[in-house]
Amino acid sequence: GIQVEQSPPDLILQEGANSTLRCNFSDSVNNLQWFHQNPWGQLINLFYIPSGTKQNGRLSATTVATERYSLLYISSSQTTDSGVYFCAVGTDRGSTLGRLYFGRGTQLTVWP
Amino acid sequence: NAGVMQNPRHLVRRRGQEARLRCSPMKGHSHVYWYRQLPEEGLKFMVYLQKENIIDESGMPKERFSAEFPKEGPSILRIQQVVRGDSAAYFCASSPQGSQPQHFGDGTRLSIL
């Protein structure tokens, strides 16, 4: 299967700070998604970004597919940004069609 | 548009009982996926289904676990004779086609006494 590594594993910030989360993956992919798991356990879709750059408010993401990594940027962080951020990738080839491979996540804590 | 609906949100079972988890995909989505999140771990793929077909069940334990997505009604993940190690959050996702972005439900938290 595809290996997905996320860094850093833990991140502690003060409100207002900016941060960059990284996701490296071991094979070419057709699907890359970023999720936020909030303290209630819900998985919130942030971005579908197999390549290129997208922005949504204070969040933006960039995927460089040829170099097999993606970055999630959080600007002016707020306490409500706390939670675990997961990167997940998938491919449309062969026997693993459809499934997503998840990284172990980055645990973000934002203090007021 | 309603999102992916999972029920129940929380399920408590005693060892040896059966657990049934339900998932209704988003409207227009015919592909359903189940994932399991064990404590302190990331999410792991279990099974991929289309209507009346199991496409890939290689992530699902061979014993006690089964899944279906009938022509009518929700997808069901069934766990027979539950054990303590089955305690986890089970997430369902759906997509309009394979390899398209997947939309996740809120999960079912299964606790085994």
Question: Helix share of residues of chain A?
Answer: under 10%
How many beta-strand runs of chain B? 11
- Sketch the major β-sheet of chain A: 6 strands, mixed
Helix-strand pattern of chain B: EEEEEEEEEEE
Overall form of chain A: globular
Count of individual beta strands of chain A:
11
Question: How many alpha or pi helices of chain A?
Answer: 0
Mean pLDDT of chain B: 94
Structural class by SSE content of chain A: mainly beta
Whole-Å distance between the termini of chain A?
40 Å
Stretches with pLDDT under 50, minimum 5 residues of chain A = none
Low-confidence stretches of chain B: none
Most extensive interface, residues per chain? A-B, 25 and 27 residues
Order of helices and strands of chain A: EEEEEEEEEEE
Helical amount of chain B: under 10%
Distance between the termini of chain B: 36 Å
Q: Classify the oligomer.
A: heterodimer
Strand composition percent of chain A: over 45%
Folded structure, characterized:
The complex is a heterodimer of chains A (112) and B (113). Chain A has 112 residues and is mainly β. Chain A is built from no helices and eleven strands. Chain A has strands at residues 4-7, 10-14, 19-25, 31-37, 43-48, 52-56, 59-64, 69-74, 83-90, 101-102, 106-111. The radius of gyration of chain A is 14 Å and the shape is globular. The termini of chain A are far apart. The mean pLDDT of chain A is 95. With 113 residues, chain B is mostly beta strands. Chain B has strands at 5-7, 10-13, 19-24, 31-37, 43-50, 53-56, 65-68, 75-79, 88-95, 103-104, 108-112. In chain B, the strands form two sheets. In chain B, strands 2, 4, 5, 6, 9, 10 and 11 form a seven-stranded mixed sheet that branches. In chain B, strands 1-3-8-7 form a four-stranded antiparallel sheet, with no helix packed on it. In chain B, β9 and β10 (103-104) form a beta hairpin. The N and C termini of chain B lie far apart (36 Å). The relative contact order of chain B is 0.33. Chain A binds chain B through residues 30-31, 33, 35, 41-43, 45, 48, 86, 88, 90-92, 95-105, and chain B through 31, 33, 35, 41-45, 48, 55-56, 58-59, 89, 91, 93, 95, 98-104, 106-107, 109.
